[in-house]
Design brief:
about 140 residues, mainly beta, seven-stranded mixed beta barrel, 2 helices
């Protein structure tokens, strides 16, 4: 796994950084990065963001690959509280954390979790983890 995604997933060990509710001001779309365990697999895509009847986040994935198992991890900048993107991870779900929504890719549905991170420490501006930042909000 790349350094940025490893640092981000490690935040699941810090209860203060784990989101227990969907954040406010979610953009209409977000970038996504698929991280699969097999070397050389994965890729980038986009997510259309909405809410379900319970107010949880519901995202529809558009891209070349989607993990058959795993989970989504919403990454929120701890300074601006802005959603930066979603990692789609082909690994076991984090135990003991509440799902804040779902990510749908084809017929596969993954639970979505969320963490706050120090964005400057996990994404290099010369090689951004998710590409350019989202601009429109709903």
């Amino acid at each position: 796994m790349l350094a940025g995604p490893s640092l981000i997933t490690s935040q699941l060990q810090n209860a203060r950084m784990v989101l227990t509710d969907p954040p406010r001001g979610m953009p209409d779309s977000l970038p996504a990065r698929v991280i699969e365990q097999k070397a050389g697999s994965g890729g980038n895509g986009a997510l259309i963001v909405g809410r379900d009847a319970e107010g949880k986040i519901s995202m529809q994935y558009r891209g070349p690959t989607f993990p058959a198992r795993g989970y989504g991890l919403l990454v929120v900048d701890d300074t601006s509280q802005r959603a930066m993107g979603v990692l789609l991870l082909d690994q076991e779900e984090p135990a003991g954390h509440p799902a804040i929504g779902t990510v749908i890719g084809g017929s596969t549905v993954l639970n979505l979790y969320g963490v706050r991170v120090d964005w400057a420490s996990v994404s290099n501006p010369r090689c951004p983890l998710f590409g350019s930042a989202p601009t429109s909000t709903s």
